[in-house]
Predict the structure.
Amino acid sequence: MKDEVTVYLDQYQCEKFDVEYFESCELRVRADILLDSKIQGYDSHHKNILEPLGDKFIHLEHTNREDSPGWFKVKYKINA
């Protein structure tokens, strides 16, 4: 994964995965489960990031920034 790849989780998804929408936190989740969790569906930007990863786990990190609630940096793919 190259640096600064980001994905958005809405407030419903944050509740579902028990992570913070506004505050700093981390999440380990399978890419396909994250992709399927968005009720309205993801746009092509997100699909291009998540679909190729299939059932691989990814590590997401959210840094508390008032201007970017819900945006998580994709830190790395987990091969397990």
